[in-house]
Here is the input.
Amino acid sequence: MLGPVILAASRSDKMRRFVSAAPGTKQVVDRFIAGETVDQVVPIVEDAADKGLEVTLDVVGEDITTPAQAEAARDAYLELVERLKDLGLGTRAEMSVKLSMFGQALENGHELALANVRPVVEAAAAIGTTVTLDAEDHTTLDSMFAIHEELRKDYPETGCVIQSYLFRTEDDARRLSAAGSRVRIVKGAYKEPASVAYQDKAEIDKAYVRITRILMEGEGYPMIGSHDPRLIAIAQELGRQTGRKLDEYEFQMLYGIRSDEHVRLAAEGHRMRVYTAYGTDWYGYFMRRLAEKPANLLFFGRSILTKG
Here is the structure.
């Protein structure tokens, strides 16, 4: 039951100040956040490539309150693209973006987010990679899907994320599973009301399996975002049942979680992509990682007690 409490705290400025100042915070943040700058994250991309892994890079930061901040977020991604181009890593790394970071919640936010994300998608395509639009809370999804559809007119490999805890997602999956699509399925990490989302873990897992089947049976490219060994095994079996080759779908896991499993899946011939976040505005991302798994919260608590 701690998950909803932690998710509520992710929006609290008071809690943000407390967590940021806690003595053990840096140790735990470093587990989930690859660094604060492009220079710090590049060696991680290179190391992943050496291990046969791919990455998707997320410049963290969601609390955008001005158009200038949204433009700065755009520029941070454009800087990332340039570095990947210079190092020849474009084919090993894609990017994940949250449209809230591009101004989606501001006045005329839909148009602003589309205008800011388009040059990032264009720049990514120019170096041989692509962008996936992350899902956020349910109130933003219609805008996200509309932007996704618009971007795919010129950049058809643009991906998007769907969340199994939302009632709407099975219908979204059917619509999105057409040829050429790239869809990441995750459980969901935002506090959602019972009117729109399953609240019981077992129901969320059942929905995840149903949606994974829809994606595997479709003509698109499924991206299985999970650390759950049972769901990973089910996805592998669904891949076999639907006749998919190992390069016709991929697994995705978070940087800092089950790293041995990343390497194991890649060694078995699966495409394995590590979701790698970096940047200075890490708080919201960090709190959702704590909420997703009690062990993460226990690790944080022990670190505070040890360092305090």
Remarks:
- The beta strands are 54-59, 93-97, 131-133, 159-163, 182-186, 221-225, 250-254, 271-278.
- Residues 299-308 have pLDDT under 50 and may be disordered.
- The longest strand covers residues 271-278.
- The longest helix spans residues 67-87.
